[in-house]
Specification:
The chain is α/β, with parallel strands linked by helices. It is built from 21 helices and seven strands. The longest helix is centred in the middle third of the chain and has 20 residues. The chain binds iron/sulfur cluster (SF4) (2 copies). One iron/sulfur cluster (SF4) binds next to helix 1 and helix 4. One iron/sulfur cluster binds next to helix 1 and helix 4.
């Protein structure tokens, strides 16, 4: 075991042993929480990342001993409840991840505690409902209901009723529903041009959000890729990536969703397609979370190797001279928020790199949490905290006074726009389409 701190290596996340009996054993879990909380107490590097760490440090500082042993174990879950599994503490701060002998992976420990809570039936029905994106989104998207839902989301009295019954904060930024079924037919090029790790053939995982809320992002992605000579097909019959259920700790459901998606995705990869998705969290599921949950599953590893962030894909092909740079419209000043679940993919600032190719375009990058974080910004009990987390980002966007702003994560973009009191943000792929004039 290595005991070095402060190196420049990418973090080494270890597989999640979630099928062992020990994983949800109460005594074992609480012992591990105590051990890790003690290390965090002496370190405190992550205090600014989310509310989990301030909650922990307040519990310690308010205790009689000023140490973890003075904290009531019944309060440990208060720390867990503030974690939205952004992974930033592990990927950007923690020097004690394996191979360090202390072997700390804070997000995985939070996930284990969430899975424990779920296994004991300690999860609220409302949380189970709003993380059932496949069912809920399909129901709301039904013609007739969609219109009523969109209208109700703007009426104060309806929102107050929603807060009382389902626990969605009356001011939380809700997405609009405008479902679109995409044409599955791919465009065919007589010759596809592989380069580096990309095949030049892409299957788009439209995601729940892309299908039900902002299909225009999918259309923009398809247009930009096809303009650059990439064959594009749409993946039909996919299910939710599983991220909402992962954040709830419902790991058996994550496995079911994985089992539904695997044959569909595998079929595309076997036919030479790479896969992209416009939402960083959905990409991260296939690039990191599922491979760590199912390290022995060769199909998952195969899909992981074929999965790309859209801008990672475009930059890789630009380096090989396969991307058009005949941009027609400069974007001026762009305030760009890099989403946490994209940052932790360890691919570098690819969106900023690509947008910076557009002439007369100056990009200011903002690398802080937007506060949306899955359902964290929607829930009545955490909405105010989410707004507090969002404030520095909103202030930086205001200060930048940019011509346009946006985030790779459309939910983060909506949260920032909500904080700013403006219209929706623009997804970077939509900015690129606009710059191409296509
Ligand atoms: S994973 Fe994110 S939300 Fe959870 S404790 Fe770490 S920084 Fe906070
Ligand atoms: S997760 Fe790691 S870096 Fe963050 S406070 Fe704990 S020990 Fe320190």
């Amino acid at each position: 075991m290595d005991i070095k701190e402060g190196n420049l290596q990418a973090p080494d996340r270890q597989p999640l042993d979630w099928k062992t009996p020990d994983f949800c054993d109460q005594e074992s879990l609480y012992n591990e929480l105590e051990r890790v909380f003690d290390v965090c107490h002496t370190c405190r590097r992550c205090v600014s990342l989310c509310d989990s760490f301030p909650t922990l440090f307040d519990l310690i500082d308010d205790s009689e001993t000023f140490e973890v042993d003075g904290v009531n174990k019944n309060d440990y879950m208060k720390v867990v409840d503030q974690c939205f599994l952004c992974d930033l503490c592990a990927e950007t701060k923690c020097p004690y991840l394996p191979p360090h002998e202390w072997g700390i992976d804070f997000p995985h420990l939070m996930l284990r505690a969430k899975a424990y809570k779920f296994s004991k039936g300690q999860t609220k029905w409302m949380d189970r409902l709003i993380t059932s994106t496949d069912k809920v989104f399909r129901a709301i998207s039904t013609a007739g209901i969609r219109h009523i839902a969109n209208r109700a989301s703007t009426i104060s009295i309806a929102r107050k009723a929603l807060q009382k019954t389902i626990g969605i904060h009356a001011e939380a930024p809700l997405p609009n529903f405008k479902r679109k079924k995409f044409n599955k037919d791919s465009n065919k090029y007589t010759e596809t041009r592989p380069c580096d790790k990309t095949t030049g053939k892409v299957a788009v995982f439209v995601t729940c959000y892309g299908e039900h809320n902002e299909p225009s992002i999918i259309e923009d992605l398809v247009a930009v890729f096809r303009y650059n000579g990439i064959e594009v097909a749409i993946i039909e019959d996919s299910k939710c990536c599983g991220m909402p259920k992962l954040e709830l700790g419902d790991l058996n459901k994550v496995e079911k969703q994985k089992d539904s998606n695997l044959p569909v995705f595998s079929d595309f990869v076997n036919r030479g397609y790479d896969i992209v998705a416009p939402i960083p969290s959905c990409v991260l599921m296939f690039k990191q979370e599922l491979p760590l949950m199912f390290p022995e599953d060769k199909e998952i590893q195969k899909i992981k190797n074929a999965f790309f962030d859209p801008f990672e894909y475009l930059v890789s092909r630009h380096k090989a001279g396969l991307i058009k740079t005949d941009f027609k419209e400069p974007l001026g000043t762009v305030a760009y928020h890099s989403a946490c679940h994209q940052r932790v993919q360890n691919i570098g600032a690819k969106t900023k790199e690509f947008i910076s190719l557009i002439p007369d375009t100056e990009v200011t990058s903002i690398d802080r949490c937007s506060g949306h974080d899955g359902t964290y910004a929607l829930k009545a009990e955490t909405y105010d905290k989410a707004m507090k987390i969002a404030r520095p980002v909103v202030n930086q966007i205001k200060k930048a006074n940019a011509d346009t702003f946006g985030s790779d994560c459309p939910m983060a973009g909506r949260m920032i726009a909500h904080g700013e009191g403006t219209d929706n943000a623009e997804h970077p792929i939509s900015m690129v389409r606009r710059a191409y004039g296509i």
